[in-house]
């Protein structure tokens, strides 16, 4: 539940804060073993049944935040086991990115239709009469469902005048748009990593905080503390995420306190991506491709290519805003390191690819960075107003909202080719994205530009965000209104396009070499 300090969010924040503090203080394995005791102190009521269980779970969360694998549950292993390989400034997470802490899992039922206490034992019993499988009986005047016979059609739910019958489903499984979550032999949730695209919606939906993603908080801080020039590139979805006090004119100082050399906007990369995707669309559709899908959301892109391999080439070849921004910074600052800061877990997956990780060294979510600010006791109100960070176009910032990528491309095409009509179809949430691709496969979207976003509302609804969707959308709108220009083609960075074209050539040559090997 975003925007509310629930126990789940408090636990996550404590973990990120303590791991960040450990890194700033250059703590070693011994301090790492002590973190669960700091996160779950004796003076407070544990979130779960016992103090010991809560600390064991906290230990797993600490390991994940350090980028390490979860411990086996059948033998003793200290929290710090294997940490010597992670307590350095050069370390990517150990796959898989997203995993289940089995001892924290509630073993929720997969899917069931049940009668609640709201049943009034009415005379009509419409639920029983309408059931196609005769699985409802009346016991002591109340409806009872035979779960062995029930096919979960929901007709009894619709028939009940009191809404006394409900369908329960495992929240993580319900949130997964690619059907990657099932139950193991003990009823715990389990992720099919071959299907998972790391969108993180399961993590966001689990009310027991049993699902974790692996991070690089410790590693990015150690790199900065050891003297590396680390540049922060910030996704446009940052608008409002850290409250009203962290304004655009305070970003440079705030991230400087954390240790970053400088800050750049990924919205600048979005402007360049817009121009590239527009050119790709004009060049390829419909002459060479029946339709074209946007490239910026890695979870959507991976899902489309996994489930519809015959249409893999229809996903735009334009580099994502994150990759474009990172490569441009490294081109201008040889030897530096780049840390992407955004709302998305799947960006961690994208950054770990062999052809990307030499340019994007670290990836953090807004929620993880909030832990860093807490560890450093940064008071946004006390910061001085300095040079504004905002330099991109309104369309570039709009990439963070569902529909924004397609709209930016359409705006660009209308300005450069006013006679060209561009039809658009878009979807948010991977289940809807899959439906959109099925319709495209059936020929319903020939000539269209397809925009897919894995998260509800787009990037502003990502698993690493902290604001409710409505508030995040409002603050993003403010960023767009305050932008000096509207269209990406008018961006002051448009003259970087020749550099971008060279970067794309280098990227695809590297990609071909990786695929060959």
Descriptive account of the structure:
The chain is of the alpha/beta class and 517 residues long. Helix 1 runs parallel beside helix 8 (217-225) and helix 2 crosses helix 3. The strands form 6 sheets. A 4-stranded parallel sheet has the order 10-9-12-13, sandwiched between helices. The protein is built from 19 helices and 15 strands. Helices cover 39% and strands 12% of the residues. It has helices at 7-24, 29-39, 51-65, 126-130, 155-159, 171-175, 201-205, 217-225, 251-258, 266-284, 298-307, 321-332, 346-351, 366-375, 394-397, 404-416, 430-441, 469-482, 497-516; strands at 98-100, 111-115, 136-139, 142-145, 165-169, 181-183, 189-191, 211-213, 230-234, 262-265, 292-293, 337-342, 362-365, 423-428, 448-453.
Please give the structural blueprint.
Elements: H1 7-24, H2 29-39, H3 51-65, E1 98-100, E2 111-115, H4 126-130, E3 136-139, E4 142-145, H5 155-159, E5 165-169, H6 171-175, E6 181-183, E7 189-191, H7 201-205, E8 211-213, H8 217-225, E9 230-234, H9 251-258, E10 262-265, H10 266-284, E11 292-293, H11 298-307, H12 321-332, E12 337-342, H13 346-351, E13 362-365, H14 366-375, H15 394-397, H16 404-416, E14 423-428, H17 430-441, E15 448-453, H18 469-482, H19 497-516
Parallel strand pairs: 9-10, 9-12, 11-15, 12-13, 14-15
Antiparallel strand pairs: 1-8, 2-5, 3-4, 6-7
Helix pairs in contact: 1-2, 1-3, 1-8, 1-14, 2-3, 10-12, 10-16, 11-17
């Amino acid at each position: 539940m975003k925007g509310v300090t629930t126990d789940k969010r408090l636990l996550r924040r404590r973990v990120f804060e303590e791991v960040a503090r450990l890194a700033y203080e250059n703590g070693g394995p011994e301090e790492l073993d002590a973190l669960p005791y700091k996160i779950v102190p004796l003076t407070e009521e544990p979130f779960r049944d016992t103090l010991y269980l809560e600390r064991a779970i906290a230990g797993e969360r600490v390991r994940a935040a350090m980028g390490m694998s979860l411990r086996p549950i059948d033998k003793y292993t200290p929290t710090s086991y294997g940490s010597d390989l992670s307590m350095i400034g050069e370390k990517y997470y150990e796959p898989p990115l997203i995993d289940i802490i089995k001892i924290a899992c509630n073993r929720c039922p997969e899917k069931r239709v049940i009668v609640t206490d709201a049943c009034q034992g009415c005379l009509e019993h419409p639920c029983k009469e309408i059931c196609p499988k005769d699985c409802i009986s009346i016991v002591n005047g109340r409806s009872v469902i035979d779960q062995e016979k029930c096919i979960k059609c929901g007709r009894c739910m619709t028939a009940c005048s009191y809404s006394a019958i409900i369908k329960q489903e495992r929240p993580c499984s319900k949130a997964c748009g690619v059907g990657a979550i099932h139950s193991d032999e003990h009823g715990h949730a389990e992720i099919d990593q071959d299907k998972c695209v790391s969108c993180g919606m399961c993590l966001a939906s689990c009310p027991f905080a049993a699902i974790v993603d692996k991070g690089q908080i410790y590693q990015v801080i150690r790199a900065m503390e050891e003297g590396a020039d680390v540049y922060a590139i910030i996704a446009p979805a940052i608008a409002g995420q850290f409250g009203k006090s962290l304004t655009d004119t305070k970003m440079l100082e705030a991230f400087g306190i954390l240790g970053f050399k400088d800050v750049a906007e990924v919205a600048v990369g979005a402007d360049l991506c817009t121009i590239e995707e527009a050119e790709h669309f004009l060049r390829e559709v419909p002459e060479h491709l029946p339709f074209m899908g946007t490239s910026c959301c890695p979870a959507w892109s991976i899902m489309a290519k996994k489930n519809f391999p015959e249409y893999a080439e229809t996903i735009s070849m334009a580099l994502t805003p994150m990759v474009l921004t990172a490569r441009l910074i490294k081109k201008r600052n040889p030897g530096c390191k780049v840390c992407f800061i955004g709302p998305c877990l799947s960006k961690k997956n994208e950054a770990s690819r062999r052809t990307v990780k030499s340019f994007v060294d670290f990836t953090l979510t807004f929620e993880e960075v909030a832990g860093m600010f807490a560890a450093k006791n940064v008071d946004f109100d006390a910061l001085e107003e300095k040079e504004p960070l905002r330099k991109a176009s309104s369309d570039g910032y709009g990439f963070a909202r569902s529909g924004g990528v397609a709209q930016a491309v359409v705006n660009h095409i209308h300005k450069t080719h006013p006679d060209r009509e561009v039809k658009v179809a878009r979807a948010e949430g991977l289940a809807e994205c899959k439906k959109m691709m099925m319709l495209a496969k059936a020929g319903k979207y020939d000539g269209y530009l397809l925009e897919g976003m894995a998260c509800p509302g787009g990037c502003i609804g990502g698993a690493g965000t902290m604001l409710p969707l409505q508030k995040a959308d409002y603050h993003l709108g403010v960023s767009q209104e305050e932008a000096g220009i509207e269209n990406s083609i008018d961006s002051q960075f448009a003259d970087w396009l020749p550099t971008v074209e060279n970067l794309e050539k280098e990227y695809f040559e590297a990609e071909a070499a990786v695929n060959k090997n």
